[in-house]
């Protein structure tokens, strides 16, 4: 059935032709899927950068109004996970109650958002995939100088 027959006038595709077309379609679809996955990762990173920038802006506004930054509410190396409840005190919950932020952001992946008030500056941070540094250079693992290249954090800082 797949062979061309000249005697009775029927035309069709050979098995080889069909296999070639199927393999080309498979190859093209794998290229498209790979590029879509890359686009998804870039979209997650863009969302995280935007939310971290919004958090820094909210912290700056909070500081202008109160002359302080929200306190750290956890003792895990001085960092608190943004939005997490620690014995009735939500990490940077003051941004919500004071109207500086509508609702605390939730990371689009498993790498959470962190906050720390170092006294002279505040810091928000998260990890990205692949790992990379942000513009903030102080704080734990925010640059090669502070943490080493094996554990990179994307950090944004606000100087008082």
Which secondary structure elements does this structure contain, and how are they paired or packed?
Elements: H1 15-66, E1 80-81, E2 85-86, E3 89-90, H2 94-97, E4 114-117, E5 121-126, E6 154-159
Antiparallel strand pairs: 1-4, 2-3, 4-5, 5-6
N- to C-terminal separation? 80 Å
What is the N-to-C order of secondary-structure elements (H for helix, E for strand)? HEEEHEEE
- Strand fraction equals 5-15%
- Number of E-type strands: 6
Helix content: 25-40%
Structural class: alpha+beta
| Sheet with the most strands: spatial strand order | 1-4-5-6
Mean pLDDT: 83
| Overall number of structural domains | 1
Number of helices: 2
Largest sheet: 4 strands, antiparallel
Notes on the protein architecture:
The chain contains two helices and six strands; from the N terminus they run αβββαβββ. The longest helix is centred in the first third of the chain and has 52 residues. A four-stranded antiparallel β-sheet has the order 1-4-5-6, with helices on one face. A two-stranded antiparallel sheet has the order 2-3. It has one domain. By secondary structure, it is an alpha+beta fold. β2 and β3 form a beta hairpin.
Features:
two-stranded antiparallel sheet, 6 strands, alpha+beta, 4-stranded antiparallel sheet, single chain
TL;DR of this structure?
With 160 residues, the protein is an alpha+beta fold. It has helices spanning 15-66, 94-97, and strands spanning 80-81, 85-86, 89-90, 114-117, 121-126, 154-159.
